[in-house]
Design goal:
5-stranded mixed beta sheet; Nuclear Transport Factor 2, Chain: A; alpha+beta; about 270 residues
Amino acid sequence: MSSSAWHPLVALMRRFCVDWLCRADPTVPGEIMTAGYSILIGGHTLAGRDEQYVPATMAQLQGFPGLLISVQELFTTGEQVAMRFTEHGPSAAADGQPAAWTGIGLFWWDGARLTRNVTEEDYHSRRRQLGARCSDPVDAPAVAPWSAMPVDPDPAAEDAVRAWLAKGDLSADGDVLLDDGWCGQPSPPLIDVADVQVAELFSAGERVAFHVVQSGRYLGGLPDTDGTEGCAAHLSAVGMVRVVDGALSGHVVRDRAGLRRQVRSR
């Protein structure tokens, strides 16, 4: 498949990954994003491409000089894109110690340029790796992510995922991997969930992407949070799952770093 045959939204995502993040070229966002582009990440919204998004992203790229992004999975409806990826590179603040951390992003466009993005990246895992001075591996990349073509939604798959999300336990009823659990790290439930708000959800065939916010009582399990168990908290998560014969599999990234900040501030 030649580049001229790529779906234009997927072609934008290639430029987002290769030309923007991997090359750290600050001129690229002006070509692939609207001026009002925003990202919701870790409970914070960076609103405005040039006002907030580009400066904040450049600061991260400068903090990890030579950062790369490897795409593990990508699917699209033609209107939205879901992408699971790994960012990896050396930390300038940690004397060049490398780290590799997972992220899942949901993107929208206006038919010409990207308009907004909801992402969670596993900054908790990055902090662990830099502290231990031992990097996790990079998960195997997709063979041909830019060849993805639009697939029609599947309402039955969406219903199955909504029912699963409503139960509150993201590790139950299926082969769904949380955070860095795919490489053997512990990823227990962190909240006794009392309420679930599905902020975003879309499907491309049997594959479903979502952003959910869970609220409830903190169960413990994060570093330096002893004594905060039972306090009210909320936890944002972005996921990409597959529904086959009613069974779910896939990946979810939770904002564990944000949850830790919440409970430590109580």
